[in-house]
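dumping the sequnces here before i forget
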Amino acid sequence: MGFRYDIRLSGSGGQGIILMGIILAEAVGIYEGRHVSQTQSYGPEARGGSSKAEVVISDTEIDYPKAMRLDMLLAMNQKSCDDYYMDLKPEGILIVDSTFVKQLPIPRAFQIPFTKIAREKLGREMVANIVALGAISKLTDIVSPKAIEQAVLARVPKGTEKLNRDALNAGMAAAVKAKKNILPFMRSEREDEDT
Amino acid sequence: MGFRYDIRLSGSGGQGIILMGIILAEAVGIYEGRHVSQTQSYGPEARGGSSKAEVVISDTEIDYPKAMRLDMLLAMNQKSCDDYYMDLKPEGILIVDSTFVKQLPIPRAFQIPFTKIAREKLGREMVANIVALGAISKLTDIVSPKAIEQAVLARVPKGTEKLNRDALNAGMAAAVKAKKNILPFMRSEREDEDT
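..and the predicted 3d for all of it:
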């Protein structure tokens, strides 16, 4: 089987989860030219106010577009983190909005306060999803910062380009910091092996 | 196997096809409380400027969210009509934007000039997709006018509620007219049988 990368983006209704899924899929599909499927499913529980969007990337045509074992989970609130972390592969990446996710179900996770950054650095809480997209482009190899910027600018309302570009950049900077914070844990493991 | 209804919405990039898919899925999933999956797929051909969104409705959980044999195809331009009409079931419904689709691949189709209506009656060509959603709610039994209105109003920018409600209503009115235009064909078939 070829390369396949399964992503679930999750949070509350109103956090812009589905728009994130579309932008991420368009960044990879249109601007990187890879095979991508993007799916949202609703059941009778949909009125509960939770929201999730799935993105599957592959090097061949995607026959089964639902995410299965996750390579990446983004949880923008505590409930979605609790509900979905078990679907992560052992080597999968967990990214949480630490503004709302206070209890980590697994020790290793990228904790970035997307909503707090959007509110305090950008003055608009609603761009927390774009901050998160910026972070994803730095925390994974699935999409380049350039492709994500093209896809964001093609989808956001005219006149909000600067705000959204700033949001992406803030997310990228926060991701670089979060990566450094998570590294000592890996380094000390490596050091333990060496001694 | 239970009830399953497969829809493909298709047209050019910029016609708001993916937003249509999301609104239709949310109308059925959140406001009607049924099982729905909504998917878009991109391949290396995605740069070509075509756009498609699929919606699958079921009375049980949807295992395979890609549309297969279509119960409904909406084609907002000639190319998507030509590319996809063969995926229709024999009893499937074809709905075309007759502003752009001039050659029908099958004789029986609902022809409604969504873009012309949006441009001339509403003064905003960009709401052609909302006009089409209004028509879909009248041409099929899958979503009620009330649910589609709730879903549209939850997704469109604040301040555009009246424009979008007018667009829905214009689409519904045009659909009622299109249904009448298509009926004589059925009636004459019936009459033939009677004589």
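The first strand of chain B starts at residue 4 and ends at 12.
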